[in-house]
Predict the structure.
Amino acid sequence: MANINHKPSKYMLNLLHVLPPFSDESNKVANVIIENNAGSRNKYEIITESGQLKLDRVGYSPLVYPFAYGAIPMTWDEDNDPLDIVVANVTEAFVPGSLVEIRIIGVMKFIDSGEVDDKVIGVVNDDKKNDHIKTIEDLGEYFKIETKYFWEKYKELKKPGTGEVKEFFGADEAVKIINECKERYQKEYAPKLEE
């Protein structure tokens, strides 16, 4: 699990900048830092510069996250944040800030306030009850309906009409997006680490 290619340090490492996006790319397994659990209105976010978990906001609507949610290290999406990931089929809450290996099963193309803000979708890799889940379709049609509804409505009371779900795609498209975000991270964000 998550071998960190970094010499020992007396300081806490910012996992967003020391872990690769994949723990096993050939099997589509990504490293994920958990930010939110299902059942919460709170929106936590990892501070990119320091790695601490911060309460970004309390949701404006009564909607709660229907899934766990996190960030993929060493990625940079078009919304100027690490790439987001929805973690489906979780039965017990994670410790926020923990590192979890997630098997990628798809991606949801999403526009948030005019910006590309795609959501990779996966399940916990080392959980026997998820062994049969290889695609988004394996989660059932209701997963897509609920996920689409959540993302299009969660900001509705503050910024009506700003969330637009485009389409769901399979794992290969998700891996492509992760790799694009990995390249963007190396080009746009990594140089800031040396300043």
Summary: The first helix runs from residue 141 to 153.
